[in-house]
Fold this sequence. Notes:
Order of helices and strands: HHEEHHEHEEEHEEHHHHHHHHHH
Shape: globular
Amino acid sequence: MANEVPPVRMIVIDEFHNYMGDDSLREKLRAIDGVPGVSYQVQGEKVFVFEKLVQLVKQNNNNLSLASELVPQATVTALEAIEDWSVFPEPYERYSDDHGQSLSIYHRYFNAYIPRKYQSRDECNIDAASLLLGHHIDGEGDFTYRGQQMVLKKPFTLNGIPERPEWLHKSHDDIYAYSHLWNTNFVSGFAPISESLFNDIKSVEVEWKKDTAAAFSFVSDQDNTAALWARAGELGLDAIVGISECSEEEDPALHADFQALYPELSMLPPAVIQEAFDDFLEGMWELPYRDEAFLFYLMGRAACAPDCKVQRLEKVTEAAISQLITSDCDFNPVNTGKLIAYSLLMGNSVADAYHAGLEAKDFDNAISTLAYEVSLVMKYLAREVTVKGIEGNPVSTLGDSFRLMRKSGVSLLTIKQTRNGSLS
């Protein structure tokens, strides 16, 4: 390794050359007058394809002076753009549904579909080519946007989410909490979301996020966290043993350190503690140290364990727990653990605290997902107001990302690997 000290913030890109490709050529081409700097641009009944222009210029010895003259050759039929150059009309994408038995054309910002299913990719491409040129696809939908009928994947409504838990901390003056809609304004033009519905969803999400932020602050108080650690033996944390992914790669030399740092976790094998600690820090082979928030992670992870659901939550039926924990079970375990911890500190039993925490997690997931989906719609509508013509996204390169990183103060450090495997 060179004698440079790595910066605090780093991005590591393995096999770096694979990411560069023709980036330099793309940057030069998009800067030339007469060359559209977008992935595609509809011109009448034809479509200019930037990637085809890149290939044409390469075939002409990278002669940039020919770029403008080659634009007509890079302009093809809509179907050719889709089938040969992987163009697809923004903001749609192909979606495989019915267990892969059919295809749909999906609007990724509206969470909606064109009201037609296709049995083959060729069928789908024909309609996609029509959409690319600005035409509409016939069918019966839930709503119309700019003349195109669409079917919502699910409705935008507060009625379909779980009941809001009312037991959380309510004193949150001056509490800052991130929410998906905090800096999003209503934009008209999307029939399924009225201004009143938008305001209702925004209000519910913002207030809920403030409540949870206040609860997180409360449980993170040093005295409260210490009180919870003192009760670690009664929290059913051994449930995570059954879902641990610890392997032979765990370092036995560190086991004694983990046990010394976390004596309250005597119910867990040291390899399980190490694996959980790595996952908590989102790293691998992390050196052990004491982190009080590790307990919240363990509680949240235990809440996802089948043993915990059945054995620890004696007051909750399996059916109820299955409804509380969604199938993905990839929620943030630290935040879930904090919700459980808050209920414990309010005097509830372990079983009731886990139940309450999972209810809160379930509501948080539902309102956060709804608010996020609404924010996508509003931001898309706001962008659409400024769009002229039919075209794809601006051409971007990895170099653009690096320039943005430099503006944020992120430095680059090049590390080379020799044939014998050493780094320099």
